[in-house]
């Protein structure tokens, strides 16, 4: 191998490694002036959205560490969180107390669903992502069955705010007066015109600390070993399947808390169309932050959330200026969310295959003389 | 006892349970006031509407590209053909043939590019296909608004630009295949001969193709890539051909679907059209790396039968509309089951 190709390889490696964030930064630089938003507005939006969404994105980190890719099954956690919220709203518990009660109620459900998802994914090694995606769709069906038909009939839900006028089933949109912004408003910090939900950020910081600490425990090391090579980990005496199940359970529970934090900020429960989208947006944000399917860090999460949501905020207005229709911008951001996942996945697999090819070539080169 | 066990093993529990469920729905139908002949008509019609898209799963499964979650690409080609045909004002047979002819170049182009992409991402096809499908659908959402269509039958009445979300085929080529040699018995039974004949013809082409030299080579690529490479088969080329075939079948499939349904559905409609097709072939007994025409026929009848019968029977029996939930649970549950059933063969 000559020096020249080696250099070219390095350049292409750097480019391929960071294509997605670079593309986004360029896109946003063009879109911000077109949208005509003030910087104050954009900063406020970003602070709000980082508080609202980063917990959900952080929940994706552990399965990636365990080599299971993007856990689209995190929607199971989001659904548990929503069921918790429905129950707490039904009992009329309000404020931060209500919020923590929701979390306490939803945790066992999320753990149970996560355990089940872990078992399913252990049976689909090598295609965890597509299986977790389909599992999410499947469980969405079960969730609808429970919420739309069982609640009010089998599970006692009496509150007229929740129940459809026919006597059973939960309304399409539920106003969460009781817990709206209860965490955000707990410690509200004002810097100039910008309000920072400090309590939410403390919560997120604690989770980051937990993930950082977890990576240094025995279990964290085991998880990384499993992610590297299941066969080697098995030989080293690590319980591979057990470790993978734990990764999924933790991810599901965290996604459940993430969804609860998200909903307390939004203040309205979109009962049927909310949960199934969380995983797509979380995954897209993480990938935009420069993560890949096998490697993701805490900085990736925050860079990703900021870039993704910046695009989310500016693209409808930019679309209106550019094309004369805000709908185009709407479609554009949906296209970007899906497109970036497709691109990041394709680049990752492609890179992986190329590296294997390169390794094989260098092996052959070494044997030749 | 052994024979029963053999049958169960061959057919698979999932298929037997769904078959039994369907049978019991048919038996229960008259007692809740649902007409059986009407139901059979519906099942046949929906079989014809969806059958060709399900057939399109076979080539990619056979060459080891996995289930074609990227079916929306083929569907988009079909939508382009259909809308351009209407734009040109073609009606009747010419309209339908024109739609096929105009869609074909798009289908070949998309299939070729999609095949190129999938050849570069061996091992991750299904996940990437899913998101390629999703992103192309959302990309086309923008295009349906921007492309310079002029036909007043298709664009929004106000504003004067951008296609409607559904375009009626009334006066163009609605039921063009359905009504060809259709057999009517009584007021409630109708056999859409033309559409079923078209399905049989497409299935025959698929069958014949897999018995040619190229077709056998394709099967070899899927079942044993190392052997295929040793035999001098160009693996990437075979995979490309299979992806193009799957895409073209998706395109024809959606056109047949539209002529029977009577509407062209644009924008978000193609998003989840891949899942029912995937679920149908899996219910028919196909796996992630093996599928044949029998799987398609059995699977489409069982799955579409279930989709037709559950709402009508359950609504009549307990007065609540469970159909959407049942569809999601059956189709996605089936896909999860199939993905977990076979362990990945070592590469």
How is the secondary structure organized here?
The complex is a heterodimer of chains A (369) and B (347).
Chain A: H1 3-35, H2 39-58, H3 61-65, H4 74-91, H5 95-122, H6 128-150, E1 173-175, E2 188-191, E3 194-197, H7 198-214, H8 218-228, H9 230-235, H10 240-266, E4 268-270, H11 275-288, H12 298-323, H13 326-367
Helix pairs in contact in A: 1-12, 1-13, 2-7, 2-10, 2-11, 2-12, 4-5, 4-6, 4-10, 4-11, 5-6, 5-10, 8-10, 11-12, 11-13, 12-13
Chain B: H1 2-11, H2 13-28, H3 36-55, H4 57-62, H5 71-87, H6 92-120, H7 125-146, E1 166-168, E2 183-185, E3 189-191, H8 193-209, H9 213-223, H10 225-230, H11 235-261, E4 263-265, H12 274-283, H13 293-318, H14 323-341
Antiparallel strand pairs in B: 1-4, 2-3
Report the principal-axis shape of chain B.
globular
Distance between the termini of chain B: 38 Å
Number of discrete helical segments of chain A: 13
Largest interface: A-B, 40 and 38 residues
Instruction: Determine Rg of chain A (CA atoms, Å).
Output: 22 Å
What structural class do the secondary elements of chain A suggest? mainly alpha
Give the biggest beta sheet of chain B.
2 strands, antiparallel
What's the overall average pLDDT of chain A, rounded?
Answer: 85
Low-confidence stretches of chain A: none
Structural class of chain B: mainly alpha
Shape of chain A: globular
Instruction: Report the portion of residues of chain B in β strands.
Output: under 5%
Quaternary assembly = heterodimer
The strands making up the biggest β-sheet of chain B line up spatially as: 1-4
Cα-to-Cα separation, first versus last residue of chain A: 13 Å
Order of helices and strands of chain A: HHHHHHEEEHHHHEHHH
Number of helices of chain B: 14
| Share in helix of chain B | 55-70%
């Amino acid at each position: 191998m000559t020096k020249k190709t080696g250099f070219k390889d390095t350049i292409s490696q750097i480019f391929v490694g960071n294509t997605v964030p670079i593309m986004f930064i360029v896109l946003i630089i063009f879109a911000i002036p077109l949208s005509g938003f003030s910087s104050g507005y954009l900063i406020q939006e970003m602070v709000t959205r980082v508080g609202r969404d980063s917990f959900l994105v952080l929940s994706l980190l552990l399965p990636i560490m365990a080599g299971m890719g993007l856990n689209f099954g995190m929607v199971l956690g989001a659904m548990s969180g929503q069921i918790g919220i429905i129950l707490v709203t039904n009992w009329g518990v309000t404020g931060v107390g209500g919020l923590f009660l929701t979390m306490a109620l939803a945790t066992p459900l999320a753990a149970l669903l996560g355990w089940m998802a872990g078992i399913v994914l252990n049976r689909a090694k090598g295609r965890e992502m597509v299986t977790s995606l389909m599992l999410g769709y499947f469980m969405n069906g079960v969730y609808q069955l429970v919420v739309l038909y069982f609640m009010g009939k089998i599970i006692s839900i009496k509150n007229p705010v929740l129940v459809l006028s026919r006597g059973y089933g939960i309304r399409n949109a539920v106003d969460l007066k009781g817990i709206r912004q209860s965490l955000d408003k707990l410690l509200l910090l004002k810097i100039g015109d910008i309000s920072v939900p400090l309590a939410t950020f403390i919560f997120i910081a604690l989770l980051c600390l937990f993930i950082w600490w977890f990576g240094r425990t025995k279990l964290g090391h085991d998880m990384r070993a499993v992610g590297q090579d299941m066969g080697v980990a098995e030989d080293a005496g690590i319980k591979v399947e057990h470790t993978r199940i734990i990764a999924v359970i933790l991810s599901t529970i965290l996604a459940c808390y993430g969804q609860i934090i998200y909903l307390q900020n939004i203040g309205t429960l979109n009962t049927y169309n909310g949960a199934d989208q969380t995983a797509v947006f979380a995954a897209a944000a993480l990938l935009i932050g420069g993560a890949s399917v096998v490697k993701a860090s805490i900085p990736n999460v925050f860079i990703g959330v900021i870039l993704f949501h910046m695009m989310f905020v500016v693209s409808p207005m930019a679309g209106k200026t550019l094309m004369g229709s805000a709908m185009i911008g709407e479609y554009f951001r949906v296209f970007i969310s899906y497109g970036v996942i497709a691109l990041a996945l394709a680049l990752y697999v492609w890179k992986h295959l190329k590296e294997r090819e390169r390794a094989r070539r260098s092996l052959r080169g070494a044997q030749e003389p | 006892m052994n024979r029963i066990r053999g049958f169960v093993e061959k057919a698979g529990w999932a298929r037997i349970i769904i078959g039994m469920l369907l049978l019991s729905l048919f038996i229960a139908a008259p007692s809740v006031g649902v007409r059986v002949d009407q139901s059979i008509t519906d099942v046949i019609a929906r079989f014809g509407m969806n059958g060709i898209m399900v057939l399109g799963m076979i080539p990619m499964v056979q060459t080891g590209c996995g289930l074609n979650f990227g079916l929306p690409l083929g569907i988009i080609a079909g939508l382009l053909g259909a809308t351009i045909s209407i734009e040109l004002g073609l009606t009747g047979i010419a309209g339908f043939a024109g739609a096929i002819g105009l869609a074909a170049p798009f289908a070949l182009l998309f299939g070729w590019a999609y095949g190129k992409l999938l050849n570069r991402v061996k091992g991750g096809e299904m996940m990437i296909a899913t998101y390629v499908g999703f992103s192309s659908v959302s990309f086309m959402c923008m295009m349906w608004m921007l492309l310079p269509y002029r036909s007043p039958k298709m664009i929004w009445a106000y504003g004067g630009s951008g296609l409607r979300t559904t375009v009626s085929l009334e006066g163009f080529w609605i039921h063009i295949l359905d009504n060809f040699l259709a057999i009517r018995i009584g007021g409630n039974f109708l056999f859409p001969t033309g559409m079923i004949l078209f399905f049989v013809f497409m299935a025959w082409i698929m069958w014949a193709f897999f018995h040619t030299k190229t077709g056998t080579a394709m099967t070899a690529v899927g079942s044993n890539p190392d052997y295929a490479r040793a035999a001098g088969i160009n693996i990437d080329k075979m995979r490309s051909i299979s992806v193009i075939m799957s895409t073209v079948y998706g395109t024809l499939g959606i056109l047949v679907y539209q002529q029977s349904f009577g509407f062209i559905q644009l924008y978000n409609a193609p998003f989840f059209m891949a899942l029912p097709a995937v679920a149908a072939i899996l219910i028919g007994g196909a796996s992630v790396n093996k599928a044949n025409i029998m799987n398609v026929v059995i699977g489409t009848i069982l799955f579409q039968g279930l989709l037709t019968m559950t709402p009508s029977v359950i609504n009549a029996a307990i007065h609540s509309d469970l159909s959407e939930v049942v569809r999601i649970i059956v189709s996605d549950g089936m896909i999860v089951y199939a993905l977990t059933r076979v362990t990945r063969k070592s590469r």
